[in-house]
Amino acid sequence: MHKRTVALIVCVITLLSAVAVLATSNHEGSRPQSPTAPAATSDNGNVAPQESSAIGKPTITVPDDYPTISAAVGNATAGAVIFVKQGLYVESVTVDKPLTLEGENNGTTIVDGNNMGPTFLVESDNVTITGFTVRNVAGAPPPSASLNQLPGIHLLNVQGCKVFGNVVVNCGKGVWVYGGSDNQVFDNQLSGNNYGVLVDSSTQNLITGNTAFNGYNGMLLESSTGNTLRNNSMYNNTCNFGATGDDPSLFLNNVDSSNTVNGKSVYYLIGKSQLTIDSASYPNLGALILVNCNDVTVQNLDITNSYGGIHLVKTVNSAVTNNIISSSYEGVWVQFSSGCTVSNNDVSQNSNIGISVEASTNILVLNNNIEQNDSTFISISDSSNCNIDGNSLQNPLINSLPKGILLQLSNDCNIVNNSQVANVGAITAIDLENSSYNFVQSNDFGLTAPGININDESNYNQISNNTFSTERGSYGVELFESYFNNLSNNVVNNFFTGLQLDNASNNTLSNNIVTSQEHAAEISKFNNNTFDSNIFLGATDFWDLGAQILDSPSVNTWIENGTVTHH
Q1: 116: closest CA among 43, 171, 69?
Q2: HEC string of 362-417?
Q3: Rounded Cα distance, 440 and 283, in Å
Q4: What is the pLDDT of residues 286-344, one digit of tens each?
Q5: Cα(11)–Cα(16) distance, rounded to whole angstroms?
Q6: Under a CB-based contact definition with an 8 Å cutoff, are residues 103 and 132 in contact?
Q7: Which of 426, 480, 476 is nearest to 451 (CA)?
Q8: 542/497 Cα distance (integer angstroms)
Q9: What is the rounded average pLDDT of the residues 511-534?
Q10: Are 408 and 379 spatial neighbours (Cβ–Cβ below 8 Å)?
Q11: CA 301 distance to own-chain centroid
Q12: Which CATH number fits domain 54-220: 3.10.580.10, 2.160.20.10, 3.40.30.10, 3.40.20.10?
């Protein structure tokens, strides 16, 4: 009995096992699959672009399910995968829900915004865009003229988005991250854009493995902090790489030397001290930004096609000397710094300013050779106690009129012994705008139009022993809405109008020699000023529009001046 029972149990178990095997075989399709291999990664550790099966099974296919990408986005539910087959799609797509959009065959899917709007405007968190060729106009103007061209991919106030494996061409801004955080932009090709990647007012974004070339700006961090840049390559751009901001805290980004411009490393150094940066210690340097540094000497470098050239931010007691900086946006750029010297540099053909000092104190700008076209040679703004001494300025273009030395909202500065050399193109020699208590002496500018502007509440300035002459006409000295200035012992030579004096009072003009072609001076609402021992040659008449316009003559004090004729 016992043996039969055991045999029966064995038979039952065998039968149940066979049934289980058969059931498993018949339901193979519902069985969980073995895990897929890990996604391929690029050299920088980011997820590399994958085929659609690697991202997820498409929920919607364009144009099979919907004829346009916009229609597919409008009808998709959150989390959907939209697969777009190769072809040309002329549309501006707004993505306002978390979606994945993938182009077929890594770039043969072309989306052209046609300057109707951003090609892709992303207004939702957790959006992925990959595998597209993105452009905003088929026949683009040169990148430098494309400022009004609209963005390719615009991440607007979003987080957790990924933009990778795309080709972005002919856009005002290739990939524009504005007001966002924790986004990833990686492994994209960006060509012919005004900006390749622009990170604007954003934080904690990851920008890696991108290539930006043949554009105006390669990559720019604008008013952004806490972002990480790795392994990005920028080349053949007018301005390859830079950072901007109106506060030092907006420069605290993590940018290492794996990023390159024209094959040379970007050095974005924060908190360094007692350091010498030169061609021997940094032989492959292509762009340099110093933030919160102290006692650093930057010398003997040759930098071109950078955004900031040599850029100092909140840096103290440091020197920039004997460098060559050319064809950048700013040549030498000093911000929020103190006790620094910029000397003996050759600065040329920078598109905005040769040497720029902003929100800084006690900066010396000494003995630099600066050549500029249609821009400003030396600009001092929102700064104080700066010395601009012994610099040589040259404008090689006859038909341009750049500013020589510009002071804006800057006080207690000395502008002395600067000169214009190789007189080919004229410059506006010195311009004081809302700047007071400055000392301007012994400068020699031989081809100016005009010579010096003192305007917009520029008060208590001393202007003496300078020479301003011209072959272009215009006026020698403009004094407008400014008070208690003293102009003495200056030579103002060969202008159509020697002095243009407007709406100002309590100024003293003494011992100046003014040679003019048409009017010694033009006066309008210029009252309670003193003219003392000036000599007027050439045209000696004063064109006086009166204390009020077309009213009685202006009321000023005249003491032993040369021949003066009033009209």
Answers
A1: 171
A2: CCEEECCEEECCCCEEEEEECCECCEEECCEEECCCCCCCCEEEEEECCECCEEEC
A3: 40
A4: 999 999 999 999 999 999 999 999 999 999 999 999 999 999 999 999 999 999 999 99
A5: 9
A6: yes
A7: 476
A8: 9
A9: 93
A10: yes
A11: 21
A12: 2.160.20.10
For the record, the structure tokens of 458 come out as: 């520029």
Hey, is 262 helix, strand or coil?
Answer: coil
> Residue 13 is encoded by which pair of tokens?
């178990």
Side chain identity, residue 458: S
CA distance 309 to 326: 8
**DSSP character for 19?**
H
**What is the SS3 assignment for 81?**
strand
Asked if 395 and 372 count as a contact pair (C-beta separation under 8 A), the reply is yes
Query: What's the rounded Cα separation, in Å, for the pair 364 and 316?
Result: 12
Backbone phi, then psi, for 275, in 5-degree steps? -130, 140
Which amino acid type is present at position 80?
A: A
pLDDT of residue 140: 61
**Residues 149, 182 contacting (CB under 8 angstroms):** no
pLDDT above 70 covers what percent of the chain? Answer: 87
What spatial distance separates the first Cα and last Cα of the chain, rounded to whole Å? Answer: 143
Angle, alpha carbons 422-425-431 (nearest 5°): 100
b/e map of 98-118 (b: 16 or more CB within 10 Å)? bbbbbbbebbebbbbbebebb
Q: Which of 94, 27, 78, 83 is nearest to 58 (CA)?
A: 83
Adjacent-strand bridge partners of 16: none
155: exposed, middle or buried (Cβ count in 10 Å: 0-12, 13-18, 19+): buried
Residue 149 structure tokens: 């061209």
For residue range 457-494, what is the model confidence (pLDDT) as tens digits? 999 999 999 999 998 778 999 999 999 999 999 999 99
- Count of H helices and E strands in the chain? 3, 60
C-alpha 466: how far from its chain's center? 35
Distance CA 345, CA 377 (A): 13
Nearest Cα neighbor of 212 from 240, 231, 254, 171 is: 240
C-alpha to C-alpha distance for 234 and 351, rounded to whole angstroms: 19
Phi and psi, residue 19, nearest 5°: -65, -40
- Which among 280, 279, 284 is positioned nearest to 267, based on CA atoms? 284
495-498: long-range pairs with CB below 8 Å, 24+ = 495/450, 495/451, 495/468, 495/470, 497/521, 497/522, 497/543, 498/536
Instruction: State how far Cα 27 lies from the chain centre.
Output: 62
**β-bridge partners, 436:** none
Burial class (CB in 10 A: 0-12, 13-18, 19+), 21: exposed
Q: What's the rounded Cα separation, in Å, for the pair 513 and 499?
A: 11
382, burial (CB in 10 Å: exposed 0-12, middle 13-18, buried 19+): middle
CA distance 414 to 412: 7
In this structure, are residues 380 and 355 in contact, taking their beta carbons and an 8 Å threshold?
no
- pTM comes to 0.87
Q: Which two tokens stand for residue 173?
A: 């801004």
Which pair of structure tokens corresponds to residue 567? Answer: 């009209």
